[in-house]
Amino acid sequence: MIFFGFLVCVLAFSVKSETQNVEYDKIRDLVREEIQNFHDQKIIKLEQKVMKMNEQLNRQEEHIQSQKTLIEEQQSYIKVQEMQIQTHEKQINEAVEHISMLEEKAINEVRQEQSDGGYKIKPWKQTEARDFGNISSHSFIDYALRQSIKSMIEEKTGKKKERHSLTKRLELNDSIVAFYAYMSKDELQPGKNHILVFDDVKTNVGLAYNKHNGMFTAPVNGVYVFIWTVVCGRHNFNFSQLVINSNPFGAILTDSDGIDDIHTVTGSVVAELNQGDVVYIRTHPTDGIDGIIISQDDMHTSFNGWKL
Where is the C1q domain (predicted)? Predict the structure, then answer.
């Protein structure tokens, strides 16, 4: 009887233990599920934060790149201005030297006239018949002096008219601005944002184009026409721009990338400029370029323009 009671107790304890194990497993699974859900939410939030940070970094990189491009353009513009200043200083020095030579020449002429006794009485021409039979010596001297003074006045008046005519011609020439130049040789490695220098100048009325740096500087306000031609080699391509004060104003693509041939493309613009505005041709600052720019005897990469 006692043994039977012990078995019943053991059986009851076993059933109770199994029930407790089942409950424990359920609780454990619930806890694991809650922990997993909590971690999943944390991971999602962290991923969202990372995505936002990546977007911010991309925007910052784009801003930095745009600032770098702007800085490069400003540096290019400053370089152009420095070249212009050097050119102007050179022109000023040449003008000062020329004026000094003219002043020295004028002083020498005055000294020569003073050493010769000033203006001389010009002799009468053989065709000018004069009857001095009834004229006294005193009247003859007065008449000769009057004729000499008249001759001096006519000479000075003629010089003034000549100077006035010359001034008119110079003013007319000042209103005409035109130039034509091309590259004297191929550009083997132009690269991006490279200013093309057209160093062989054929026409430069108004002296507004500088063959040393490839810059045209508007001498007066007005409307101008500009045309540029770019030749690229076989299986090459390049993008070029016409730039006004570091701002792109016109653009062309010369492309023979897909064929075994040389291509030539011409671009043209009409622009209203103010005095001192700078115009030049450059390769594109960001678009790619492949190969050389050709300029030879039978085909020229050229730049020209004129004021309307």
Answer: 172-308
Q: Which residues contact 203 (CB under 8 A, 6 or more apart)?
A: 178, 179, 180, 181, 304
Helix (H) or strand (E) holding 155: helix 137-175
Sheet containing 237-244: order of strands: 209-210, 215-217, 278-283, 237-244, 247-255
Structure tokens at 150: 């008249």
Question: Cα separation of 212 and 83, whole Å?
Answer: 9
Integer Cα distance of 253 and 228 in angstroms: 12
Residue of 188, 265, 279, 191 lying closest to 230 (CA atoms)? 265
Residue range 246-287, pLDDT digits in tens: 999 999 988 877 777 788 899 999 999 999 999 999 999 888
CB-CB contact of 283 with 237 (8 Å) = no
Alpha-carbon span 38 to 195, nearest angstrom: 61
Residue type, 294: I
- Joined together, the tokens standing for residue 139 give 């009247």
Q: DSSP secondary-structure letter at 273?
A: E
Alpha carbons 227 and 270: distance in angstroms, whole number: 9
How many angstroms separate the CA atoms of 295 and 264, rounded? 11
Question: pLDDT (tens digit, 9 = 90+) per residue, 110-155?
Answer: 666 666 654 444 444 444 444 444 444 445 555 555 666 566 556 6
Which has more pLDDT, 199 or 174? 199
Q: Which residues are bridge partners to 224 per DSSP?
A: 271, 307
Backbone phi, then psi, for 225, in 5-degree steps?
A: -115, 135
Question: Residue 13: exposed, middle, or buried by beta-carbon count in 10 A (0-12, 13-18, 19+)?
Answer: exposed
